Amino acid sequence: MAFIDESYREPLHTDERPFYSMSAVIVGRDQGALVRDVLMDIPGSRYWHTTEAYRTPAGKRVIKEMIDYIAGAADFNIVTVQTQIRRDDPGMITARHECLGALTKELTRGSGVNAVRLLVAESRNAKVHPGGDADDTRVIRQLRSAGSIDRAVHVHHTSPGKEPLLWAADLSVWAFRRNLAVGDKQWFEPLQGISTVLHVDGADVSVKRSNPHLPQPSPGVQQTVSHESGRDRGRGPAVASPSSVVFDGSESEALGRIRRIAAAAGKNVDQEVTLAVATNEPRRLVAAANVYLRQSRQPEGQSRPRTEEAISRAAETIMQPQGAGKVKAALEQLRRQRAAEAEKVMATEPAEQQRSHRPGYRR
Fold first, then answer.
1. Burial level of 26, CB count in 10 A (0-12/13-18/19+)?
2. Are 149 and 104 within 8 A, CB to CB?
3. What does pLDDT average to in each consecutive run of 10 residues of the chain (363 residues)?
4. Among 202, 180, 193, which Cα is nearest to 222's?
5. Of 45, 79, 174, 265, which residue is least crowded by CB atoms under 10 Å?
6. What would you measure as the largest C-alpha separation in the chain, in angstroms?
7. Residues 6 or more apart from 39 whose CB is under 8 A from it?
């Protein structure tokens, strides 16, 4: 199971840079009851909110003890972050869908018996967020329909008061925010050994990471080190107001680094397809399909059947039949073009070389 919470900074009329982040703490099914009990024992209460606890010295000591415990008790911690908030997304709805879509695909790509299939998220205040829980459910449903995630994946919403394991996600995303927003690394450092931090555009901002495309056994992702090491990078922490988190006109080192890495990495077609489904944006999917077609037609372009299948399934899910038909027709035309080019090459090869292509042929 994965327990999810979010943290964000909304677009303001200042030099602050907005961002949206989500953290998912993964706890083994056989460890849930124990971790839940310990998380309640440390503060000695059924109520917890990290931001409130941080206001007092005693609360800070409890935060440190809880984070240190999570670092040893949780299996993995996945963080997704969006640092390019769109101008047409002042309420950050699209940013949330992007983070949730990228997070869910990463969390659930495992195929082992302990792979994550249940996401537990905090219920949203319907007065503040009218779409609320229904929006998250729709995102997961569309990802399932498009084949982007396993059909057994579901999301369940509840409150931290009813499920204290959500406190782990609250602590994780709070610690990540402190690092990201104000350069305060001490809180997230204990979690680095179990954390993977990904930019939603597909740029990997981890220090090191094995191939993210390989199916993983339990629980669905592999252990790695997060994007920020403890090394001194030549700059002190950003100076911030504790109440408003303002940076004197600058952004934190961690936030800037994520933006630079993401910009250098560019867009990833497969990830864009997932994000198009999560945000229900047909135009975004068409743009991703066009990028793939353009890449495939270049001399060094290669056939990627899984990507083509993902584009087709996504088109069927979020586009009208006529539009989906055009996307699939373009992919079919690309396949016919490849087949024709292959036949042309075969026709110009010497007879001896052609015989070597026959199945089972041996010289």
1. buried
2. yes
3. 93 79 92 95 94 96 97 92 88 94 92 89 87 92 96 96 96 94 92 90 58 39 33 28 35 80 80 95 94 87 90 96 95 89 73 54 43
4. 193
5. 45
6. 82
7. 48, 66, 69, 70, 164, 165, 167, 168
